[in-house]
Amino acid sequence: MQDYSKRRLTYETDKFPAISALAKLISEENPGQEYLAGLWKSDLHRGLLWSPFPKRNVQDVLEPCSHGYRFKHVSQEYIAPSWSWASCPGPVNWLGEINGRLPADSAFFPEYRLLNAEVVAADRTNLYGRVSSACLELEAKLLRVPLGGDGKAKVVKNADTEKTYTFGFLYLNTTHAFLSPSDEYVANFSLDWDSPSLGISDSANEPVEQMWMMLTSSIQHKKPLENQSRGFAPGENCLGLLLLPTENEREFIKVGIWLYHLYKHQGKRQWEGIQPQSIRIV
What we know:
8% of the residues lie in helices and 39% in strands. With 282 residues, the chain is mainly beta. The protein has 2 domains: 2-96 and 116-137, no CATH class; 142-281, no CATH class. A hairpin with a 2-residue loop joins β4 and β5 (68-71). It is globular, with a radius of gyration of 19 Å. It starts with a helix and ends with a strand. Residues 160-164 and 227-233 have low confidence and may be disordered. It comes from Trichoderma gamsii. This is Heterokaryon incompatibility domain-containing protein.
């Protein structure tokens, strides 16, 4: 998908039609697979983890509305939901395996329950082509981005703006991390837009304080992992989506990805006391 996303299409609305024959073939050869706006239901906990690279400006991605935000499509016509790679104009990267596969002793698990997936085809004769709307209904754990006493999120920017963080076998191209009010590490994150002043200037036009972290996936490692001469103990990575509310109750759009350092956090312990909520992502 990374190679396909680098190709220049005459019309952005052709993203799904151009691969519809391939998607149909995969579906026919794998009975039970459900195609969801460029992703597969059985692999959704990994398919949600695409991000644009290079990135656009925040004004080209978000449109403020009365009580939240709307996702801005690059075309006047609907292309894809915010949770699909196809919503990103241009190349996308997957937060994935450095060597193209999971280590033999690591396993990737979903940390949500899919209640319903509604994808409306623009042409009912081609269920793998253009879509006119799409929505995921999930039961998932949400954690508000930590805020300080001043009501602002504490974000730090790394000195090396091009640094790619490696977490065992995962990579995340990011320059920012969330800190708790007491300056403890929370998570590294990557937004779906370019954020050069975030973490440096208080005037940065970023709606970070309104964001939520959704626990999407975990990776369990049975054996120690080596990373840049640093030994990792067996344990877990936790990762997920950054969400912003829309004007509708319990409805969100995807605006980024977050990931825990394996050696700085104890897996899912931070999420143990949080009850799942029913939400919609559009």
